[in-house]
Amino acid sequence: MSSKKMLFGDDGSMPADAAWLWVNCHDWPDWTIDVLRAVEAQAAPVPDRQLLRPEMAEDLRTMTVREDPRYALHTRGSDYDLIVIGSKGRGLMKSLHIGSTAEWLMHLPPAPTVIVRGGHKAQRILLAHDGSLHAMAAERAILTLPWAHDAGVRIVSVSDGTTDGVEIAAEAGSRLKGAVREVTTSVLRPDELQVFYRPRDIIMDAISSWHPDLLVLGSRGMSRWESVNEVALHRAGSTASALATHAPCSVLLACHRE
Asked: Structural domain of residue 109, as residue ranges?
């Protein structure tokens, strides 16, 4: 088996500590973990990260660069199988807002990217699937995780009249079956009395009721779920961006690339 690589964005903040704990809660056999520190010129030194269990990964390396972390992670990220960052940071890695590192990676991640909220093991994974190429990339990202076989996956799709949510969820479930501990599917529908609705709100309701440890979705594929509803409400922004920003759990975003 060829070695896979993870890029961990580290600024020494408490959210980065939580993200590192999340990494250490899982096993990464045959993976090399590169810790990338993009620091300001006068930044105080940060202690090196250590694996809590040396056997959990094949290798651990640390790189320090004096660059904007958005540039550092985005330009190097395409060489990796997974990027992991905290949801907030200090210094150049500021909280999740327009222009932040997480915001940059959210819209066009160079590799599947986990924005960590909470340093605990992911045992319940919610996959939001609309049948798009980006959602397919998110589905494949789950299969890349070496510990996915220990996790239960619930696949949700929103039936909005333009996509066959039942078929989408069923086909995704058949592809994941056997690779994860269990697979369940759920097709979400807006209330019949709702004239205008936002699929992201329906998915947030599913998150609130199922309490996943990790939400997985395509970074841009959710546009098929916005269409007329978003235009009628005069709202900007994508479903994926809203979910990544407001979901209470960790979020994995993936983007289809030609």
From this structure: 4-116
